[in-house]
Amino acid sequence: MGLAQNVVFGLVTGSYIAIAAIGFTLIYGIVNMINFAYGEYLTIGAFVGVLSAGMLPLPLPVAALVAMAGGGVASLVLARAFFTPINDTGPVPMLLTSIGLGLALRNLIRLTGGRSARYFDTETATYRFDGLPDLAVGPVDLLGDLFVTSEQLVVVGSAVAVFVVLHAMLTRTDVGIAMRAMGDDESLARVRGIDTQFIRDSVWVVAGVLAGLAGVLIGIQTNVSSSTGFSHILQILAAAILGGAGSPYGAIAGAYVIGLVLALSTAFLPAGMTGISTAVAFFILVVVLLVKPSGIAGQEVREA
Amino acid sequence: MSVGDRLPESIGDRLPDRSGDSALALGGVLVVLAALFVLTPISATLPGALYVFLEVAILFAVYGILVLGLDLQYGHTGLVNFGHVVFFAVGGYTVAMLSAEDPFAGIGLGLPWPLALVAGIVVAGVLGAVVGATSLRLRDDFLAIATLATAEIFHSLFVNFRGVFGGNTGILGVPQPVKALAGDTDTTLLATLLLFGGACAITFAVVTRLTDSPYGRVLRAIRADELVTRSVGKSTFTYKMQAFVYGAALAGLAGGLFALYNGAVAPGYFTIQVTVTVWIGMLLGGASNHRAVLAGLAVIMGLRLLSRFALGVAPVSADAFASIRLIFVGLVLVGVIRYRPAGIWGDEKELGVDS
After folding, report:
1. In this structure, are strands A145-146 and A140-141 parallel, antiparallel, or unpaired?
2. How many other C-beta atoms lie within 10 A of the C-beta of residue A87?
3. Nearest-neighbour CA in chain A from B39: distance (Å)
4. What are the alphabetically sorted keywords of the record (chain A) (predicted)?
5. Do B139 and A295 make contact, defined as CB atoms within 8 angstroms?
6. Cβ-contact B136, B79 below 8 angstroms
7. Separation between Cα atoms, residue B319 and residue B21, nearest integer Å
8. Which of B80, B160, B272 is opposite residue A92, by nearest beta carbon?
9. B82 close to A (CB below 8 A)
10. Is any Cβ of chain A less than 8 angstroms from the Cβ of B314?
């Protein structure tokens, strides 16, 4: 397999990690917590997507929208139930709560959804992306033997769409501008009359919607199981911290770095060591934390 | 506001009590009793119904050593180590790899077990020093993530490097010295429980000595206010590092004992659930109070015991039951943090949870 093929895998992986990492980093920057249960939000979204696509059945794009809505609702409800009441206790209790919640959610999904993996049926006509040429039919004569599937194009395209919408939201809408203001200085934002609780809730919804989309995209690429989110949370974390936790644009860059490193590392690791990618992602994370012990540039400025 | 006002009251006037000495005596008695069963022809006969109690009690003693080390790190020094299981695992794996004969998969050098046990403690301590050197300057929640990361890295190494760590099977053929000496199952169980209980009590005594001394006062001062502690001339990093290494070495001891009792190590014994269990025990009982953390651990392990009995009568499969138990464990962690942030027997003022 050529190097170029690995780059394609890296860009695809980077795309869905980026979508999730934006949501994760918004929670970090504005609610000021590391939400370790965030991976389970991806799983919830993926399950809502695969169930609505398979049972109702809905066309895939509609199922993805349902999954995004499900992710947003779940995120807001869980935040109101578990995180909002302990908002003032500091980062450590919030983190520990999210670890406990993640453990409970993961097993709740396993209990109700079963242990076996589920698949998006991308082969049948209902779920074909009719408008797109199926490039997987043969090697694309661009950089030698380069395969690109329509599913991969959907993942990368969704990510680009998310980046555009997110940028517009953060720079053009009142809610987005208020989010950035709260990320910079919460008390100042409150003095300026920003309804901080409303903005927090908005962040939870946006993060949940992004998690839902990321979950569906991962599901399209591989499969959906109760461990879908948990097996990606470490990469999401690494991307967010690598990009400077709290910075959405940094998270995008961090996600593509992680994606490419993971994809290229498989080229150098022996076969059968795919499970090691978790270790690779976390190794990157630890190295980044070593180089920048405070974790975040923005945080240092604020505390000074 | 003076420094004295900022430090919790109990730090200044916490005086040594006799609990360390009585624990030491208890530990000695238990070890002697264990030796009686192991080294003499005396043997025990137990009703079969007691087996499950003994198994959970042995695990409690092992986790007790873990939680005492964790309490030294978090309860006293304020270090949020959420990867405690990695030191437990590294202790266990080191002992297994050095002492196992015919390990089926992975490395087994067949060295004498006492040597392996010492090596397990040392290797866990060294790993603690490496993790500490790289991570202790991090903000609390980033330290938690970095330690969690370390644990996940090692877990995936254990699973993926089959030639070295035996993969998912782990390493079999670890010597079981108590079993070899005691002979029958009943005597082995009882002697192991006495021996591990003794080890746990002696650990309690040592940790209590350490934290009752002026040294322990510095640790608690670091947790209360690191900047102030540094301003009175204490090298807080050195103290944090020492506390971290002591905790890691204790976890290594627990891991080594576990391997020698169990006769095998595998990734399945060293999951994040172990970390969560000892954290719940510590938070439930009340961090920074050694007796309280053991009591908290007893509560959560008691629930584990109850759930074993519940499994027998519950109308669900073992797999579904495992999920239900973990849902419950996760929610207990959430509930403890929300409703009993200082724990059942903890000192709210000392932990500063009301601030």
Report:
1. antiparallel
2. 16
3. 44
4. Amino-acid transport, Cell inner membrane, Cell membrane, Membrane, Transmembrane, Transmembrane helix, Transport
5. yes
6. yes
7. 45
8. B80
9. yes
10. no
In angstroms, the CA B59 to CA B193 distance is 9
DSSP string, B3-52: HHHHS-HHHHH----SHHHHHHHHHHHHHHHHHHHHHSS------GGGHH
Least Cα separation, residue B353 to chain A (angstroms): 8
Sign of the dihedral through C-alpha A302, B142, B278, B331: positive
Q: State how far the Cα of B86 lies from the Cα of B127, in Å rounded to an integer.
A: 9
A300 CB neighbours in chain B (<8 A) are: none
How near does any CA of chain B get to the CA of A107, in Å? 5
A285 reaches B (C-beta below 8 A): yes
User: Is B138 touching A (CB cutoff 8 A)?
Assistant: yes
CB contact under 8 A, A275 and B135: no
The token duo for B84 is 């405690």
Q: Is B292 on the interface with A (CB under 8 A)?
A: no
Nearest to A249 by CA among A26, A10, A77, A78: A26
Closest CA to B278 of B57, B83, B76, B55: B83
Write out chain B residues lying below 8 Å of A232, CB-based: none
CB contact under 8 A, A286 and B137: no
304 residues of chain A, pLDDT tens digit each: 567 788 888 999 999 999 999 999 999 999 989 999 999 999 999 999 988 887 777 788 888 999 999 999 999 999 999 999 998 888 889 999 999 999 999 999 999 876 778 887 665 433 444 444 444 444 454 555 677 777 888 899 999 999 999 999 999 999 999 998 888 888 888 888 888 899 999 999 999 999 999 999 999 888 888 888 988 888 898 888 888 778 889 899 989 988 988 888 777 766 555 566 667 777 777 777 777 655 444 444 333 2
Is 0.80 surpassed by the pTM of this model? yes
DSSP state letter for B236: H
